[in-house]
Amino acid sequence: MNIFGHNFRLAIWGESHGQQIGISIDGIPAGVPLSAEDFETDLARRRSGARGTTPRREPDIPQIVSGLYNGMTTGAPLTIEFANRDTHSQDYANVMRHYRPSHADMVAYHKFNGFNDPRQQTGARRQRWMELIDQYYGKIDLEVVKKMLADTYDVYLGYNCPSSRDICSHYDVDPQYYADDPDAVWNIPFYPAGSCDAKAAGPDDVKHLKMWGRYGRADGVEFNARDFMDQHPLWKWMDGYLEDRPTQPWTLFD
Question: pTM of the entire structure?
Answer without folding.
Answer: 0.57
